[in-house]
Design goal:
Helix content: 25-40%
CATH architecture: 3-Layer(aba) Sandwich
Order of helices and strands: EHEHEHEHEEEHEEH
Strand content: 15-25%
InterPro entries: PTS_IIB_sorbose-sp, PTS_IIB_sorbose-sp_sf
Keywords: Cytoplasm, Kinase, Phosphotransferase system, Sugar transport, Transferase, Transport
Distance between the termini: 38 Å
Subcellular location: Cytoplasm
Protein name: PTS sugar transporter subunit IIB
Oligomer: single chain
Largest sheet: 7 strands, mixed
Number of helices: 6
CATH topology: Fructose Permease
Strand order of the largest sheet: 3-2-4-1-5-8-9
GO biological process, one term: phosphoenolpyruvate-dependent sugar phosphotransferase system
């Protein structure tokens, strides 16, 4: 099993993930990790429709995703993991799946958020979770599309404070 990308994108599977990232990474499985989406039949059906035909789809809680990944369940596959928030990635990490890098994509602005860069706004809780991951040795980067330069997201956070 090869993890080809771990991405935070509050839209989950959409045009950039389905049409660009999945092709560039040659993903064979997209794994949506979200404890609430797992229980949402409408969201699950929308994700199934949005998933590219060349990819299998898993929609799992953070605990189940960590169990499956740590057990090597996806042997021979190229897995692209996507989650809505850094809290979910932290849960995945704390459940035993230790990743090397996380890519921050879109995090829409909402109440009580601070814009860090175009299309990325964070709450205080998000900042805490990003810094926690960084302290564990996870490299946190920002890159909207593969042709954009990779940015150090922790440096962007520090610059915004």
């Amino acid at each position: 099993m090869e993890i080809v990308n771990i991405r935070i994108d509050d839209r989950l599977i959409h045009g950039q993930v389905a049409a660009v990232w999945s092709l560039v990474t040659k993903a064979t499985r997209i794994m949506v990790v979200d404890d609430l989406v797992v229980k949402d039949i409408v969201n699950k059906e929308a994700l199934k429709m949005a998933c590219p035909k060349q990819c299998k789809l898993s929609i799992l809680t953070a605990a189940k995703a960590a169990d499956n990944l740590c057990a090597g369940k996806y042997e021979g596959e190229r897995v692209f993991i996507v989650a809505k928030s850094p809290k979910t990635i932290r849960s995945l990490y704390d459940a035993g799946f230790h990743m090397e890098q996380v890519n921050v994509g879109n995090m829409a602005g909402k109440q009580n958020t601070k814009m860090i860069k175009k299309a990325v706004s964070v709450t205080e809780e998000d900042i805490e979770n990003f810094l926690y991951l960084a302290e564990q040795g996870v490299k946190v980067t920002a890159q909207m599309v593969p042709t954009d330069p990779v940015q150090d997201f922790v440096e962007l956070l520090k610059a915004a404070q």
